[in-house]
Design goal:
Length: 167
């Protein structure tokens, strides 16, 4: 596609980009020390939980299950606060990447993302956002770091019904 040339003497056009589906986004690194001890101490449904962090006006945490699956380490996002919207849902996406010792993504194969509409809050756990092979984790000297990007989408707008428009 050819871009038309701007005629001499014409005024420049300023283009402003506005996000229609605005989201609040936060990036957090979670460090897991003592991996070998956590997998010995924790039962199948036992988890470790990160400190709370805030994105989009909501409080979140990451739950780490060292033994939910025999061959994998699992991470789950958790909504700690109750949704304040009238529809009772918080829409969020999480993208997590396993980092190497230098702080760079270890591999494209050790990353995952998903979206979820949280309904209840107060400890509601979502989908498994990242599942790591235990062999991959064990290569990092009993410590690993996961970077999570959390985006909370603003509530979508809807057309007023005829009754709302009149009254």
């Amino acid at each position: 596609m050819q871009v038309p040339a701007v005629a001499a003497g014409s005024t420049n056009t300023v283009v402003q980009t506005i996000s229609v589906t605005a989201a609040a986004t936060g990036v957090y690194d979670f460090r897991f020390d003592g991996y070998s001890l956590t997998k010995v101490v924790a039962g199948e449904e036992d988890f470790y939980q990160s400190e709370a962090f805030s994105v989009g006006g909501h409080n979140w945490a990451i739950r780490y299950y060292p033994n939910r699956d025999n061959s994998r380490v699992s991470l789950y996002p958790v909504l700690l606060s109750r949704p304040a919207d009238d529809d009772g849902r918080v829409r969020a996406s999480f993208a997590c990447t396993f980092l190497d010792k230098s702080g760079k993504p270890a591999s494209k194969d050790i990353a995952d993302s998903a979206s979820h509409a949280f309904r209840s809050g107060a400890g509601e756990e979502a989908w498994e956002v990242l599942s790591l092979r235990k062999e991959a984790v064990e290569r990092f000297d009993d410590c690993f770091v996961v970077r999570c990007t959390v985006s909370v989408l603003k509530k979508p707008m809807s057309q007023p019904s005829d009754e709302e428009a009149v009254g």
